[in-house]
Amino acid sequence: MKNYIILACLLLGLPLMAQTKVVKKNAVKANNYGITYSLPKTSLVVHVEVVKVSCQAGPYYQYAEKYLGIKDAVAEDKVYYELGKVTLANVGIPDPDNTYLVEFKSGTVAPYAYLTEEGLLCAINAEYSPEASTWDTLKKNKPEQKTGTNASVFSEELLMAGSKTRQAEVAAKQIYRIRESRMNILTGEADNLPPDGAAMKIVMDQLEEQEKALTHLFTGTLTRSTEQYEVSLVPHDNLNKEVLFRFSELLGVVDVDDLGGAPVYMNLKTTERAPLLDPKEEEKKEKAMKGIIYNVPGKASVEILMNQKTLYKGDVQITQFGTRESLAPVMFEDKKMPVKVYFYPETGAIKQIIQ
């Protein structure tokens, strides 16, 4: 079967996936004491951070090495991209082939269940609140980081210098004067020292800011902003060098068919898989299952690579590689000791049973 891949790019400031929301469903006479839910199948969601770097050359970049000894000054305006952190999440999506109606008897104690908005089972006879996910934290966009030049550094002497060569010389001398002033303050040799520690910090911060701004006239400026991408894949078998997307230093994330980017691969290998049943065995098992049907996921190891460099490596549960089992209806009929069951909505597996 095919593995479906979806690539999504979202603008800065927008969440990539909404936090899980749950809905309480009561098994009452109006719905014949029945609750419909779906078991999930595994969708692997790869979250990618891409840093866009905008470079702007300083007006005196030609003189950076001569006056300041800086050899790596930005020499031209350009934009390039860096591939940041790559993470993986197991996201359950409703499996239309595994939707069930569970019917509670009218005498069942507190018959209700919590489902996600998509109909995935979260809990039976128990209050349920989605846990705070580190995945949501990872998806938050990083603020834009700018390294710029403050116009206030253009002193009268600098503006009146005339030629660019002379302006660069004046700017360099201002930098060295600032450094000398800072050193004099630190050593106590300055004529007018700040009266206290707080005042000294303010003065030192201002000197540092002026020096950085003047230095950027030589080194240039950089602006970094983080863009967020998601790639979703529904695996049905092992994967060998499955291309998730391509990455280009000039364009960022590009489509799998764009040969202008280097391919980012996923390798997926099954480590635990339920034995395959023949059609008769499968039919017999389906007929024997009554009550609450749940998943027992399989497992797989996952590695994501680009240019033979590992970007992510870990283990993940895959419901498609597992099997289904059932909880007997009689478990929910004891009025003296009502049973509470919690599930993992992303896999459909049992998390905890409390009696």
Describe this protein's structure.
By secondary structure, this protein is an alpha+beta fold. It folds into 2 domains: 4-57 and 74-145 and 223-354, no CATH class; 150-219. The chain has 6 helices and 15 strands. The protein has helices at 64-68, 134-138, 156-159, 164-187, 197-219, 279-288; strands spanning 4-10, 22-26, 34-56, 78-103, 112-116, 121-124, 145-147, 221-234, 239-248, 252-254, 262-272, 292-306, 309-327, 340-344, 349-354. The strands form 3 sheets. Strands 1, 3, 4, 7 and 8 form a 5-stranded antiparallel beta sheet that branches. The chain has a 5-stranded antiparallel beta sheet with strand order 2-5-6-14-15, with no helix packed on it. Strands 10-9-11-12-13 form a 5-stranded antiparallel beta sheet, with no helix packed on it. Strand 5 (112-116) and strand 6 form a beta hairpin. It is elongated and about 90 Å long. The relative contact order is 0.21.
Portion of residues in beta strands equals 35-45%
Structural class: alpha+beta
Strand count, sense and barrel status of the largest sheet are: 5 strands, antiparallel
- What would you call the shape? elongated
Helix content: 10-25%
**Rg on CA atoms, Å:** 31 Å
Helical segment count = 6
Order of helices and strands: EEEHEEEHEHHHEEEEHEEEE
Could you outline the blueprint of secondary structure elements for this entry?
Elements: E1 4-10, E2 22-26, E3 34-56, H1 64-68, E4 78-103, E5 112-116, E6 121-124, H2 134-138, E7 145-147, H3 156-159, H4 164-187, H5 197-219, E8 221-234, E9 239-248, E10 252-254, E11 262-272, H6 279-288, E12 292-306, E13 309-327, E14 340-344, E15 349-354
Antiparallel strand pairs: 1-8, 2-5, 3-4, 3-8, 5-6, 6-14, 7-8, 9-10, 9-11, 11-12, 12-13, 14-15
Helix pairs in contact: 4-5
